[in-house]
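STRUCTURE:
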């Protein structure tokens, strides 16, 4: 996993509301990020098989695909890919805990002003970045020796 920076993160937004998706994608692109989006959660597996992203933003309430199930599926595909829940339902403690147990790294309410929403996204990204750095330092890749001395 490449280290994330706020200036260059590649987002995948998965939300069934095209107006919200378009608004968020436009805003993130204005902030210098690359964004792709899906308005149908069931297309996520195919998209992830053929594309790469730095972070996935998932709506919990979508038709055809439950957001928590989608988070679990994404987590099975990648243990380290940051997943942020993006929900308009307000704070439902049980659903948020279920999303975190499924593998989400954090959550953001759609009801926040866009600047606050961006701050929360940035904070979650920074936390994931720090965690990846710590893991890289504690589990450095060891070079494999081609041969042994005679």
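SEQUENCE:
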């Amino acid at each position: 996993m490449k280290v994330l920076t706020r200036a260059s993160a590649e987002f995948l937004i998965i939300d069934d509301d095209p107006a919200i998706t378009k608004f968020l994608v436009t805003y993130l692109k204005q902030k210098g990020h690359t964004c792709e989006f899906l308005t149908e959660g069931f297309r996520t597996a195919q998209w992830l098989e053929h594309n790469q992203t730095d972070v996935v933003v998932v709506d919990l309430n979508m038709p055809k695909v439950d957001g928590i199930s989608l988070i679990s599926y994404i987590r099975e595909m990648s243990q380290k890919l940051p997943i942020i829940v993006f929900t308009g339902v307000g704070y439902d403690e049980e659903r948020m805990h279920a999303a975190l147990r499924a593998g989400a790294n954090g959550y953001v309410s759609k009801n926040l002003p866009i600047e606050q929403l961006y701050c929360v996204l940035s904070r979650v990204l920074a936390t994931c970045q720090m965690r990846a750095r710590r893991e890289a330092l504690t589990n450095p890749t060891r070079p494999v020796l081609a041969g042994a001395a005679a």
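REMARK: Confidence is low (pLDDT under 50) at residues 1-6, 144-150.
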